[in-house]
């Protein structure tokens, strides 16, 4: 591995190796976001080639979202037991295997198994829990900023991948676009193998912002007993009102982002005569503004009351979703929507993680957040299937967007019910 040599070289330049770990994690989460978002580009080609209707395809994607979320708490345990590097490599292999096998699928059950189950399990191992784990293991200072950067990786993945995938699909077919995603996953796996390390102590380093080296905690018990840990943690935190508020608001977060926009936006734009490449370009514009919105949210979450940040993020998102039908689905109108919606697409993640860590402690934060993120993905599945079913039954997506907008307004108000006004201390 290159990590010891590179760490020593960076140390001579007074650069902490934690930034390399953050960069490799960003890359991994970025290409996984491409794998998660790609089916939104492929819905129409799958309908044309196989004759599957929208609600059927949406059901497979809903399964993927649920498994993606439910893997979160257990992914945290796997990272604690096996180490982040091994888990990341395993996840990338699983997703690549599922996508490569799907190049040859001909039956609907194969779509469910490969894009629903296999991709759902694989991507779930490197969900937001990975970003939270890296931030807490490698950073003492700038933790909120790192959470924001890593959360923004999904937006950046959208910015990079979706327009390209739409263009590849239009000119060469969806299988070529899927092959491109597999190549990107292979590149990320190589970077993880060469550069990723589990903890700063592995390289004789303290956390970024600390002076003393902290040895890795000794893992006690068998893997089987550790797999019970997420369930025990869930039992303990289920009595907390804060947990259920964060769970409920993140449910709405997932329903109003990946479940609705990421899955159905391109198809909905097609209903109004906008070609897939143009719709993917609008999604990329959202990703561009979300990158800055999420990084800015990480900076703000280190300095201001995170409850009020959630109130404003959810409220603004709700207003933008309810205004979407009035854009007339012109490129100009959708571009305005992309700016308003994009700025707070994933901006909710840093304050949610900060509230979780402040309430439940840094040692349990990744597992607790894993359960909260499960709520996010259950919400995603709810919207992915519900919006597809509504489009099939009512021949329109518009009611889904009004419902999602109203739910966001509710989420913003509910976030203020967290009793203790938790504030993060300023970082250097």
Tell me briefly what this model is.
With 428 residues, the protein is mainly α. 78% of the residues lie in helices and 0% in strands.
Structure description:
- The chain has a single domain (3-203, 226-415), classed as Up-down Bundle (Growth Hormone, Chain: A), CATH 1.20.1250.20.
- It starts with a helix and ends in a 13-residue tail after the last helix.
- It contains 20 helices and no strands.
- It has 428 residues and is mainly alpha-helical.
- The chain is 78% helix and 0% strand.
Core attributes:
428 residues, 78% helix, 0% strand
Percentage beta strand: under 5%
Structural class, by secondary structure, is mainly alpha
The first-level CATH class is given as Mainly Alpha
**pLDDT under 50 segments (min length 5)?**
421-428
Largest β sheet strand count, sense and barrel closure: none
Order of helices and strands: HHHHHHHHHHHHHHHHHHHH
Mean of all residue-level pLDDT scores: 85
List the SSEs and their pairings.
Blueprint: H1 3-12, H2 18-37, H3 39-50, H4 54-82, H5 84-102, H6 108-124, H7 128-138, H8 143-151, H9 153-172, H10 174-195, H11 223-227, H12 229-237, H13 241-256, H14 258-271, H15 276-301, H16 306-323, H17 331-342, H18 349-360, H19 362-394, H20 398-415
Helix pairs in contact: 2-7, 2-8, 2-9, 2-10, 3-14, 4-5, 4-6, 4-7, 4-19, 5-6, 5-10, 7-8, 7-19, 8-15, 8-18, 9-10, 9-15, 12-19, 13-14, 13-19, 13-20, 14-15, 14-19, 15-17, 15-18, 16-18, 16-20, 18-19
């Amino acid at each position: 591995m290159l990590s010891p040599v590179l760490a020593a070289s960076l140390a001579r330049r007074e650069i902490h190796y934690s930034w390399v770990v953050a960069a490799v994690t960003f890359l991994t989460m970025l290409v996984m976001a491409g794998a998660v978002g790609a089916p939104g580009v492929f819905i129409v080609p799958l309908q044309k080639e196989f004759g599957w209707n929208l609600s059927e395809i949406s059901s497979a994607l809903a399964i993927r979202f649920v498994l993606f979320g439910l893997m979160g708490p257990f992914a945290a345990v796997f990272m604690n037991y096996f180490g982040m590097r091994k888990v990341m490599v395993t996840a990338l292999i699983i997703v690549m295997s599922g996508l490569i096998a799907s190049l040859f699928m001909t039956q609907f059950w194969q779509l469910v198994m490969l894009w629903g189950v296999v991709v759902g399990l694989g991507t779930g191992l490197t969900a937001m829990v990975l970003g939270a784990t890296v931030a807490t293991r490698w950073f003492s200072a700038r933790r909120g900023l790192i959470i924001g950067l890593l959360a923004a990786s999904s937006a950046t993945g959208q910015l990079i991948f979706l327009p390209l995938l739409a263009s590849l699909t239009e000119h060469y077919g969806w299988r070529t676009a899927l092959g491109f995603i597999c190549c990107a996953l292979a590149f990320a796996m190589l970077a993880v193998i060469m550069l990723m390390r589990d903890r700063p102590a592995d390289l004789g380093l303290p956390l970024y912002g600390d002076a003393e080296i902290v040895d890795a905690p000794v893992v006690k018990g068998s893997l089987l007993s550790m797999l019970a840990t997420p369930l025990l943690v869930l039992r303990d935190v289920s009595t907390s009102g804060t947990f259920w508020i964060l769970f409920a608001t993140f449910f709405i977060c997932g329903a109003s982002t990946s479940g609705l926009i990421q899955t159905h936006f391109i198809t909905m734009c097609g209903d109004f005569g906008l070609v897939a490449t143009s719709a993917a370009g609008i999604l990329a514009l959202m990703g561009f503004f979300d990158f800055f919105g999420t990084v800015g949210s990480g900076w703000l979450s280190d300095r201001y009351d995170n409850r009020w940040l959630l109130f404003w993020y959810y409220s603004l998102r709700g207003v933008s979703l309810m205004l979407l039908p009035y854009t007339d689905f012109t490129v100009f109108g959708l571009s305005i929507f992309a700016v308003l919606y994009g700025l707070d697409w994933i901006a909710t993640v840093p304050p949610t993680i900060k509230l979780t860590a402040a309430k439940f402690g840094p040692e349990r934060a990744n597992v607790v957040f894993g359960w909260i993120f499960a709520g996010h993905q259950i919400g995603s599945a709810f919207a992915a299937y519900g919006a597809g079913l509504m489009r099939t039954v009512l021949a329109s997506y518009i009611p889904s967007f009004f419902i999602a907008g109203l739910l966001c307004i509710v989420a913003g108000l509910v976030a203020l019910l967290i009793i203790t006004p938790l504030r993060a201390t300023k970082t250097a």
